[in-house]
Description:
Layout: H1 6-11, H2 14-36, H3 45-64
Helix pairs in contact: 2-3
Amino acid sequence: MAILKAKDIRKMKPEELKKRLQELRLELAKELGNVKMGRPIKNPGRIRELRRTIARILTIQKEKR
């Protein structure tokens, strides 16, 4: 899944943001699970990107309220 920029997130509808947020959280949980189980990481920076994108979405959702 592509990492989103703030301007792209602002253009999205609220329903679409909720769906994307759930997908990102699921992907983050899978990546963290792989780390905990000791599996090799394909892309170490991916976890950081996912966390930042989730934070961007949550921040923009709160701005809109």
